Amino acid sequence: MGCEGCARITLLVFNIIFFIIGSVCLGVGIWVVVDGTVFLEVLGKIPEDTSVVGSLIQDAAYILIGGGAAIFLIAFFGCCGAWKKNKCLLIVYAVIIGVLLLLQIGAFVTAYFFYDQIVDVLNDSLANALNKSYNSEFQEKSAGQFDYTGGNILSKGLDAIQIEFECCGVLNYTDYPNDAFPPTCCPANYSGKIKDLADQLWKGDVTTYTTTAPNCHGNITYIETVPGCLDAIKDYILDKSIIFIGIAAGTIAVQVSFSIL
Q: In this model, does residue 35 exceed pLDDT 80?
């Protein structure tokens, strides 16, 4: 088997994987849009009044449908072109990959030049969603120890992020109504890995939350020093930037090689 045969098989295998991924994304997206009530019940029984969360999930569903359909069609052209050695399909595939590559470059350039505006919009949207929809409940049992009842998906997700990244709110604690930030803004008292605790909390396996700083909850002076989660996540990404750059470069390299093939 020559280089051409190896390249054809590689192209076929990769596109079969993308075909499956696209099909799954498309199917999940359609399921959420058509029967979103069942989906919400499966994920966490979100109350009807949390319209912001429902809107975010619906938007995510449409993104899944659009992205899944695009991946599905691209993989279809790649698979058929590689399997049948159809030059026309392979040209269409190469053109689509080329257009996607240009769109990605355009997105990177746009993000670079309009970074501040994008961050402001993201900050406002997330802070608004938090303010309207956060509904996890805490009942203090003793100093630094609370009975925990996880709320909707947004609430449990934010609790998990605050524990793992040791942050509070989107920008800071003032994102919460009346500055009433939850105990998950305070450092966790946990003997294992903090990530494990965050995972258990997200899954609903945790009913008690204990902090190492009993004087933290309700103490504005203490919480003022805790960063917002958006900044904490941004710092984490910058810290791991080499890995993300490597993944991005690898993705672009694969796309370019496929378009050449």
A: no
Secondary structure letter of residue 192 according to DSSP: S
User: What is the distance between the alpha carbons of residues 161 and 185, in angstroms, rounded to a whole number?
Assistant: 9
What span, in angstroms and rounded, lies between the C-alpha atoms of 243 and 239?
A: 9
pTM for the structure as a whole: 0.57
The answer to whether residue 207 scores a pLDDT higher than 80 is yes
* Start-to-end CA span in the chain (Å): 16
* Strand residues in the chain grouped as ranges (E): 137-142, 145-149, 208-210
Quick one: which H or E segment has residue 232? helix 229-239
Dihedral of CA atoms 75, 78, 82, 84 in degrees, nearest 10, equals 90
Q: Which tokens belong to 43?
A: 């994920």
What's the rounded Cα separation, in Å, for the pair 44 and 205? 13
* Separation between Cα atoms, residue 56 and residue 153, nearest integer Å: 11
Mean pLDDT (the chain) is 74
Q: What is the predicted pLDDT for the residue at 125?
A: 73
Q: Who wins on pLDDT, 58 or 251?
A: 58
